[in-house]
Please model this.
Amino acid sequence: MYLRNALCAAMALTLAAGGAAQAESITIATVNNGDMIRMQGLTEDFTAKTGHTVEWVTLEENVLRQRVTTDISTNGGQFDIMTIGMYETPIWGKNGWLVPLDDLSADYDVADILPAMSGGLSYEGTLYAAPFYGESSMVMYRTDLMEKAGLSMPEAPTWEFIREAAAAMTDRDNDINGICLRGKAGWGEGGAFITAMSNSFGARWFDESWKPTFDSEAWANTLNFYKGMMDESGPAGYATNGFNENLSLFQQGKCGMWIDATVAASFVTNPNDSTVADSVGFALAPDNGLGKRSNWLWAWALAIPAGTQKEAAAKEFIEWATSKSYIELVAAKEGWANVPPGARTSLYENPDYLAVPFAKMTLESILSADPNNPTVDPVPYVGIQFAAIPEFAGIATDVSQEFSAAYAGQQTVEEALEKAQAIATDAMEAAGY
Model:
């Protein structure tokens, strides 16, 4: 039996290397962030090993979500692999829309995936998407500007300290904004940020009876604090800034602080791209002393839509792109600071990686995020920067548009919250909650 299995394995490897008979061309939809673009640049390694080629469809985050959701819900069949996250995966897995990843190879070592990531990408104990990288959120700040302002960043700051520091670091004459935060509409853009922030203010999307709570004092406090701080110390046009826009501002030296995905740390400390790479510090996401920080939990992950005709090749790609070997490939070519973080336990046991200045803070942020208990008061949903119900994406996209309009001065915070309450109430009642 052992000999037969060994011969079969050898034949499979030979065929893959030869490429001709079994080679496929697979189409992958992904987001236009730095780690995914880096992966595209390394795809020739995958092709050399398997014979398969890859066609990329690279999209802005909001557009990606729309395209893949439409495609999978209509069985459109445009993609063999989709880049999705912790919100979509359990819902789509439950619906039977994704191929279960329950037969990955022993070498892949599924058990090495951080439990926070595998748990969020599973349904009823079955993995339906493999994390390319995992993230929480944290404070990234200019150590030189903090020192110039006569302040010292605590490891676990409060929102009041962040606002004070933002005002002290703002220098309009030199185009330096004390703080850069997402305001862009979209449930996974500005919506994700303000939801995570609201948790630390005691707010929640729904109470235990699934009634929306935007008419609460906690939500008013969240939005008024955010808008007040950003009007004082944020960049012009912050209402339309998302992850990529704020990353660019920070790398250009135009932000004193940026609170966003932990994965951004490798980009702001990369001297090839960042003008402030040698003066960046890190801290936990802020809190208000209520027991909840404002950090989220997320993974950009690779999943296979059910119905693809290229399931075997798609699984080979997922094993390649989310493996320990891929991490080593990136480290060899671009250094340990640039490997995809937050997905594998073994990465945080590697002394080469632990020497990276943001590695420990990233892991601490991920481990402190609790999607099962995301808020100060109890809620009926799972998720930190989202509520894991099918209706959430549509509701939150509409709500985030109202919030962005308030940030831009097109309506008051009170008007935005009143509209958010009406939007969410109508949608939840229509859905039968």
